[in-house]
């Protein structure tokens, strides 16, 4: 088996074991792993594609992943031309920007995010009004692929039901509410914990009393035998006095004190020696 086929089989397994409710991709047949179909949900609101579900095709070169795949939409969207290879940084139009570490999952996530962008003369891109794109989004749900034999809504509904069985809770717009356990383990090992953004109110927040914690038997025994002493009230920091700084420096650097004493003894010795020589 060629390295390209092994890579494609690995990606197909990974898409099944760690599914995303936002998109579904699979080879058209088991005999040809270089021809895939994908079904993707539109970006979230307020995007004009929010209610849409789109179907497309992925053609992978025999040297994949050294060379990038090509993508084309089969469902009218108002963003990309139908059945025409689209020009993206992750597609075959820009081999110089493709990285072999990327894959089908990465590409579909990029396509979903690129849909809200402007065409600006992009190959395979369309510039139409927002009303036309919303109309295409509503009609896209009932669009049927001749090869798959199912509507986009049926394909994505079945896939989201599979995601729920894998532990991914799917909201109305396909938002992932629960991360699969396997993905959660990888995130905790490879990524730092992201800070949680807290909403700031315009009014000053009232201080809430600390929650009451029921002590465990071990903690209760410790508290009974060693009662806690109330901590003194916090005071503003006081700048250290010079004498304190010198004392701290002397305690931290004892070798410096010895060096100073040695220099003083040497100076006294030299002065006494000159005095003795002058009297002689």
TrEMBL record:
The keyword Magnesium does not apply. Residues 174-188 have a biased composition (Basic and acidic residues). Residues 229-240 have a biased composition (Pro residues). Keywords: Ubl conjugation pathway. Pfam families: UQ_con. Gene3D superfamilies: Ubiquitin Conjugating Enzyme (3.10.110.10). Residues 174-250 are annotated as: Disordered. Residues 3-153 form the UBC core domain. It comes from the Eukaryota. Residues 215-228 have a biased composition (Low complexity). SMART domains: UBCc. PANTHER family: UBIQUITIN-CONJUGATING ENZYME E2. This is Ubiquitin-conjugating enzyme/RWD-like protein. The lineage of its organism: Eukaryota, Fungi, Dikarya, Ascomycota, Pezizomycotina.
């Amino acid at each position: 088996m060629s390295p390209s086929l092994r890579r494609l089989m690995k990606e197909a397994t990974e898409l099944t074991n760690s599914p995303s409710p936002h998109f579904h991709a699979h080879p058209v047949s088991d005999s040809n792993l270089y021809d895939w179909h994908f079904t993707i949900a539109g970006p979230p609101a307020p995007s004009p594609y929010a209610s849409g579900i789109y179907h497309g095709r992925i053609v992978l070169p025999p040297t994949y992943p050294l060379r990038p795949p090509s993508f084309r939409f089969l469902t009218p969207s108002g963003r990309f031309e139908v059945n025409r290879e689209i020009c993206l940084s992750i597609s075959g139009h820009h081999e110089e920007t493709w990285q072999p570490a990327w894959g089908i999952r990465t590409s579909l996530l990029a396509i979903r995010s690129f849909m809200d962008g402007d065409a600006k003369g992009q190959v395979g891109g369309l510039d139409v009004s927002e009303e036309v794109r919303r109309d295409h989004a509503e009609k896209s749900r009932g669009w049927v692929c001749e090869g798959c034999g199912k509507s986009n809504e049926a394909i994505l509904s079945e896939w989201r039901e599979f995601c729920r069985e894998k532990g991914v809770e799917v909201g109305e717009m396909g938002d992932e509410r629960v991360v699969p356990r396997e993905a959660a383990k990888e995130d905790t090992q490879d990524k730092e914990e992201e800070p949680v953004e807290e909403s700031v109110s315009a009014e000053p927040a009232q201080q809430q009393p600390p929650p009451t914690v029921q002590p465990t038997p071990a903690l209760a025994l410790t508290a009974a035998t060693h009662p806690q002493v109330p901590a003194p009230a916090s005071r503003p920091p006081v700048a250290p006095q010079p004498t304190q700084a010198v004392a701290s420096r002397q305690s931290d650097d004892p070798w410096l004190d010895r060096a100073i004493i040695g220099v003083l003894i040497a100076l006294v010795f030299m002065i006494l020696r000159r005095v003795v020589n002058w009297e002689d």
